[in-house]
Amino acid sequence: MKHFKMLSMARLGYQYLILGWMIFFPGLIAAQQPTASSFYEQALSLHRSNNLSGAIDYYSEALRVDEQHWDALYNRAMAYYEMEKYRKAKIDLDLLLSEKPSDAAAHAQRGRVHFMLQDPLSSVADYSFAMGQIKDDDLLINRGMAYCQTAAYSQALMDFENALQKNSNDVEALVGVGDVHF
């Protein structure tokens, strides 16, 4: 019985030691907890090395720690898009835009997702919003292609011609013009 009491006392002393460390050195305990930023940085590294499923896992962990880590949400949507998981990408972009409705990059990406999901009207709306804030010739061409899917050929032609005014050698814009006239 004495042996048991001594073990209990030793255990109790150990618990007090741990409690003391937690009270006087809380930074040591907190420093061991992974942060949303550390998960995000790991996700970016995996994303850059084209390990998309690993990147998605780490973006998800960053969001678990901080559900308002908008960069993690956007980049997870990008990874889903690259994996051709367009519905999952759309869910993330819809969530992001519900919280940050003026995010032009998210609108541009969701325009691409809508296009791949065969929803050209929504694609046109997202591209149009993004074009109000981002000057990018690719958005003109992408919106022109979406207009073609809706049979709005005059608007498509206008977008392709505007892209050609900025770069007369833009192959995609030239193909778009040819498709409209064909």
Commentary on this structure:
The chain is mainly alpha-helical and 182 residues long. The chain is 80% helix and 0% strand. The protein has helices spanning 2-24, 26-31, 36-48, 52-65, 70-82, 86-99, 104-116, 120-131, 137-149, 153-166, 171-181. Helix 3 (36-48) packs antiparallel against helix 4 (52-65) and helix 7 (104-116) packs parallel to helix 9 (137-149). The protein is elongated.
Topology, please?
Elements: H1 2-24, H2 26-31, H3 36-48, H4 52-65, H5 70-82, H6 86-99, H7 104-116, H8 120-131, H9 137-149, H10 153-166, H11 171-181
Briefly summarize what is shown.
This protein is mainly alpha-helical and about 180 residues long. The chain has helices spanning about 1-25, 25-30, 35-50, 50-65, 70-80, 85-100, 105-115, 120-130, 135-150, 155-165, 170-180.
Major β-sheet profile: none
Helix content: over 70%
Mean pLDDT: 87
Tertiary shape: elongated
β-strand amount: under 5%
Low-confidence blocks of residues: 1-10
Number of DSSP E strands = 0
Structural class: mainly alpha
**End-to-end separation:** 96 Å
- Oligomer state of the chains in this structure: single chain
- H and E string: HHHHHHHHHHH
Rg from Cα: 26 Å
How many helical elements?
11
Features:
single chain; 182 residues; mainly alpha
